[in-house]
């Protein structure tokens, strides 16, 4: 089933929003525009109206439910905090939008902030951009909280309005509405508009570039869930394998396998021993060498290794056809391969990630009582195909045609941890290379750059050097036309290290301190073999 054509504030409605906002602004004096970035950092732009006056702002299909001044504190500037609801003219969908406006410190820019998991976003995420001088906005994308139960109505029927709002419509509605509020409050449009998100937020940003290429000038997309239906369905693959093979593997065996792979390939790519695989796709570790290894939870068997191998291989159909990617070496098995002790039988049983259960019950099977333990290989394949058919366009941000976003001079800085257990980095690489196929390498670098962080987990964490400020690198690219070749990163002990632009990896050269970023150079990495059966 395909989603209905998207609703929302298209170009015609955007014009109406701008007209509505300007009609309110005309009663106030016009704010003085901030100088452009090339002339130096913009001077703060003051508002042209009182915060409380935004309660009277009239926008199509939109209700201002609160416009409250906040005095701020020692770390947070004074601001005007606006809450709005935006109604869908075609169905019953309603999204909540939060817009935080600096009172005295606006830098002339707008920042949209994304969500995570099944959360569209929250007001709490706006404090950081507000403190940095941005007018910022977020949305719940049509449902409260982070649970994935919103896909079904209370009577068990599909809630397509909520699904579509989460897919892409809610963020676009937020963006258009927030810009109208900003224009009204300050008397001018933002000079630049940015998106900042990771995981679901990364997907939301890419969806904006693909479906609404006029919304943002720059997009930071971390660990993006690009192929959402493939990823979200494929996450339970390891549990299905353990169930069908009647072999729930305890955690310490997975931990032993992870440690062995890292030890075997520690110097691959980066050339140093640091507990991180610098180039996982050059790691030729053979899991079969672990058979017979003693662990605190038993001896690793050939059957255990088979489960691990299929987790690295990724979901496959009953005839062996490619469905989706698995884990690279160095990515933890934890989380997706959790098992627990059944108190009734005393045996280990699978314990899937709750997000995977929500997804299958409330979006794919449309059955809140679905028992995942009834899913065999043929049924998994059927559910996988159903998920892709239903949500490939609605929730998947996998369209490689970024030509219109590029014509608008938009920039996407995409980064992903190579040790991400939840959203496999292979899907992100797949997307990047399909964009290269679509636009060509040169044009791709003009609009999209990918950075892979060795040893870094989902949106951060892990043993690798953590990206320190990729958002600033994006702003510099957009405003100063200085595209990044590397990202700055910091190790747990305070050392510095570069993260190279794909397909390169940072390799330690010469002698000296491995914590000195200047002692690394970017060398070609091993390119992943895509979609191999």
Automatic annotation (TrEMBL):
InterPro entries the UniProt entry points to: AB_hydrolase_fold (IPR029058), Tannase/feruloyl_esterase (IPR011118)
Pfam families: Tannase
PANTHER family reported in the protein's UniProt record: CARBOXYLIC ESTER HYDROLASE, FERULOYL ESTERASE B-RELATED
Annotated organism of origin: Blastococcus xanthinilyticus
Family of the protein in this entry: Belongs to the tannase family.
GO molecular function, one term: carboxylic ester hydrolase activity
Signal peptide: 1-33
UniProt keyword terms in alphabetical order: Calcium, Disulfide bond, Hydrolase, Metal-binding, Serine esterase, Signal
The protein's name: Tannase/feruloyl esterase
